Amino acid sequence: MTARDTQVQGIFNRITTSYDRVNSLMTLGRHAAWCREVAQRAGVGPGGRVLDIATGTGEIALALRRREPRAEVAGVDFSEKMLETARTKPGADAITWEFADAHSLRFDDESFDAVTHGYLLRNVSDVPRVLAEQVRVLRPGGRVVVLETAPPRGALRLAISAGMSVVLPLLGQVVAGDRRAYDYLKDSTLGFIQPARVAELMREAGFVDVGYESKYLGTNVILWGRKPGS
Ligand SMILES: C[S@@+](CC[C@H](N)C(=O)[O-])C[C@H]1O[C@@H](n2cnc3c(N)ncnc32)[C@H](O)[C@@H]1O
């Protein structure tokens, strides 16, 4: 792991207890619906295997399992604190939770029918490598579904940037008592690449049929793709 990865890991270990509350406030409750949409787009059937990377407090993994109770769901993250919280949630017993760095997964080649992740890519030091790992562990024809933030653009860019610059650190201060950690979340969101570029990187990694849909005034996005083959 690079020094930056270690710093990011430390931030997520610090904000675990406030994460779900701040996330829900920041997205005005939309996060839960986006997790359901990610699960639906992953399209895993009975007996299928799905990997949720950067599972955090487990919301996407739990949505996957609720959508298909006969699927085998694994949730991985490099924050032990986040995983601790995920393990306490209703329904968590049916999911395998484990530590993993998204840059080097321990899973065999072609071992999953789908891979999902929420708010992973803007946090990693090497996006192409993280995407290449996902292509590797997916079976041919397997799907990837990605939830990400997107830097605001267009007419509302200044207003949204200013709003986020005030609201996120303030929520961090009030809800978590940790303004600096939420400063990082604001900076990583505003400094991230646009969805069109993420889609390009997904194609360069080897995914086909890549598409995306913007959410919430373009500040969030769901992207999807497929590993070639069947
Ligand atoms: C903003 S949280 C998102 C959690 C969850 N996916 C969601 O949608 O609410 C980002 C998560 O990514 C994890 N993460 C960041 N970089 C990672 C890496 N290189 N390997 C594994 N997990 C990572 C963090 O520990 C954190 O739990």
TrEMBL record:
Keywords carried by this UniProt record: Menaquinone biosynthesis, Methyltransferase, S-adenosyl-L-methionine, Transferase
An annotated GO BP: methylation
Single GO MF annotation: methyltransferase activity
Transferase in keyword set: yes
Protein EC: 2.1.1.163
Broad EC category: transferase
Pathway listed: Quinol/quinone metabolism; menaquinone biosynthesis; menaquinol from 1,4-dihydroxy-2-naphthoate: step 2/2
Family to which the UniProt record says this protein belongs: Belongs to the class I-like SAM-binding methyltransferase superfamily. MenG/UbiE family.
Role: Methyltransferase required for the conversion of demethylmenaquinol (DMKH2) to menaquinol (MKH2).
Name by which UniProt lists this protein: Demethylmenaquinone methyltransferase
Source species: Kocuria salsicia
